Amino acid sequence: MELDCQNAARGVWLVKVPKYISQRWAKQKPMTEIGRLNITRNTSGKMEVLFNLSEQVIRTDPNEDSVPSSSSSIKTSTNKSSSSSTTTTSVPTTTITTVSTSSSLSTKTDKPITTTTSIPAEHKFAVSNINHQTLAIFSQDENSKLALEGQVVQKGECRPIGDAHYMNLKKETIRRASQPTKIVQKLDRAINNFKPINVHRSELNEDQRKKNEGKKMRDDKEIVQNTLFAAFEKHQYYNIKDLERLTKQPVPYLKEILKEICNYNAKNPHKNMWELKPQFRHYGKNNQ
């Protein structure tokens, strides 16, 4: 598969945003302004980034049908000055859209949450050091064409300012999460309930088989012995279940006959198996 590396040298930003922001972004129409970045440097030369959401994003009703977005990346257009810069962001129509002159902004989001509370408008970026990391942004269009959109030059996290507005949002989120998912309902009429089966299907089949076979009746002792001798002509060792199945005799009655003509092995290698006694092992020759 081919990879478009035309924008491999472009620098992009990778920013993680809160859940409520990613949810609002997913509900915007294509090419809608979603916010502005204000990048300044303080007296010590450290970069400070403030992000203000647009009124359109704040007023969006979370219950409306959202416009599907293939990723959480956004388009940026930057106007640079000597001390500060303002960036306008828009929702993309593809996975990662093109950027303008010097920098772009891409987001990494978590799963969205559902809330009807208004969200804070002002946020700040906590920028982290990525000198020892190599990160890149890839995109995939509707035709499954892959493209390298740029190298990550700045990594950060979008954090809300801890004011009363944000605290109310968290309070509402916690309140909704604590609500029970099951409620008690009053029924106007009785509902037919079926009792669960406390016997496994295999046990039912075994009981049905025994019922169909009926009660085992004792045959004449000589007939049972002849059946056992015929069985031992084929195999030297049998367990009690196989002999019960062959003779179709009750187990206590069958054991009485086995004790007369067979030995029971209590040790390996034929543990729990029956075999004919030495005096009966050559009964075939005696009958000839």
UniProtKB/TrEMBL annotation:
Compositionally biased tracts (Low complexity): 66-115
Region annotation Disordered: where it falls in the sequence: 60-115
Function: TFIIF is a general transcription initiation factor that binds to RNA polymerase II and helps to recruit it to the initiation complex in collaboration with TFIIB.
Upper taxonomic lineage: Eukaryota, Metazoa, Ecdysozoa, Arthropoda, Chelicerata
UniProt record similarity statement: Belongs to the TFIIF beta subunit family.
Gene3D superfamilies associated with the record: Winged helix-like DNA-binding domain superfamily/Winged helix DNA-binding domain
Provenance organism: Dermatophagoides pteronyssinus
Name of the protein in question: General transcription factor IIF subunit 2
Keywords: DNA-binding, Nucleus, Transcription, Transcription regulation
Database matches in InterPro entries: TFIIF_beta, TFIIF_beta_HTH, TFIIF_beta_N, TFIIF_interaction, WH-like_DNA-bd_sf, WH_DNA-bd_sf
Annotated TFIIF beta subunit N-terminal domain residues: 10-181
TFIIF beta subunit HTH domain span: 218-281
Cellular compartment(s): Nucleus
The keyword Transport is annotated on this UniProt entry: no
